[in-house]
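Slide 14.
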Amino acid sequence: MASCMDANAIAWITTKLHRIRWKIENFSKVAFNTKLDGPDFYLTSTCMVGLAFKKNEHDIFVYVCNKSNTEIRIQRELFFFSCNEEILHEDKDAHIFTLEKGHYINIMDRVQNRETFDILSNDALIIDLSFTMIVEIIKELHQSQNVTDPGKKLLGDFNMMKENSVNSNVCLQIGKELIPAHWSVLSSQSLYFKKMFESGMKERLQNSVILTDLSLGTAKKLIQFLYTADFVQGDDIRELFHLYSAADKYEVLELRTSCIHRIMSKATADNVWQILLFANRHDDRDFEWQAMHFIKSHSDVVFQTDGFKKFQASKPFIANMFLFSFLKKN
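Slide 15: predicted structure.
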């Protein structure tokens, strides 16, 4: 007989990242020790928070107020920028802040060189905040050798659906390769396929979709993600570029975000210029910002690479602007 033990477990679950930018105009005219209310926004459909700002002659404070009915835990990354995107301050530690209902809490570390904030370009300060919400779930576990993790089981079931063509109701064609799939999965994970499913297009009526702009490898990774929220990653950053482009076209937003994260994890002083150029071509501001932040953080080496020379040849104005900013700083 299998032994069984009851226990309580605490699971910490992080929800998706939320990013907000708040521009404070006429910064020098903000009175000392006067709280300036900023925007309100939702972390989830039931969890609203609000921002506030205050300064004095020695320091600067950014507050978050919990405006929902339950306690909230968050992590944050905070950046101060000037109007020309110069980083003036950053906080990126893994500290977890507990927000009680109706309470304001300061999420800033102490700023260095407080006096630099009194001579801001255009007299404006940009506060760039990224929040991750932390949810604590306490539940009773019955530990047994016969119990299966339901999350893993669900992913396994979806993977079996992908591999089993018996119940498929649409066929994806890449070249001569035919991949069976399910409209319900495609349309629930991709806005592109959802529109196709609801529109009565010939692909929907014929239950056949020809993908002419994807390689077979990229298409398989895209479909794998639609079913399992994951994909097998190779070492070639160009494969991630192709997959990002597919996620962008077929409007699989979570895959696009995942590609950005994996691409930036492979960023080097040489290839970051290629990454920046790619993000610029896709007009992805958040992706561009991450690449530019990497460049600024590694400015002592990135301008000496062959990658920068190639970028300078294709985007001379932007490249020289970066170089001028670096030389000015040094």
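Speaker note: The chain has a mean pLDDT of 80.
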